[in-house]
User: What shape does this take?
Amino acid sequence: MATISIDRDRCVTCGLCIEVCDWHVLDTDSDDTRVEAIRPDDCTLCRLCEDGCYESAIRVSR
Ligand code: SF4
Ligand code: SF4
Assistant: This one.
């Protein structure tokens, strides 16, 4: 299973990582204030979210 780390200090909750993930691994929490990995089991480690994050706030690893 992938480990998905989101740096809360860097993340601006722009939502880009949520949009690029076709596997719907990421979403905002119920308050719409933080990005969370809601389906980490479905992560393919494609790293599209990492590549797209201009704040370098998300990291995916095995
Ligand atoms: S793309 Fe980066 S800054 Fe934007 S919501 Fe995702 S982790 Fe946060
Ligand atoms: S690495 Fe790919 S599958 Fe995993 S959360 Fe990021 S965009 Fe989604």
